[in-house]
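Kindly review these tokens for lecture notes.

. . .
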Amino acid sequence: MSSDKNFVEFIVDQIENAGEISFRKMFGEYGVYSGGKLFGLICDNKLFIKPTVSGRTFIGDIIEAPPYPGAKTSFLIEDKIEDREWLSELVRITVKELPDPKPKKRKK
């Protein structure tokens, strides 16, 4: 089941002061970005955040699950998606710890 675009837009609208937040459709689901860094996925109308040490400490009681079969586990965010301040802080913490995206190689 693919995610509902309204759910994706709701999640993006919840996040503030965490850089320019955008999303991109990927394989029927969505990748969520801050300043070009992929920090999360939305699959089956569920929010998954890339795991980081600081994010783990911030969340505390973590639920980890793969966003799709065969994927690495991520932090599954369920109960706090309507808590704008908490979710925004988690995104800021996560993005700060993630490496910058690698430059794309030019085609020859």
User: Anything to note?
Assistant: The CA atoms of residues 19 and 34 lie 5 Å apart.
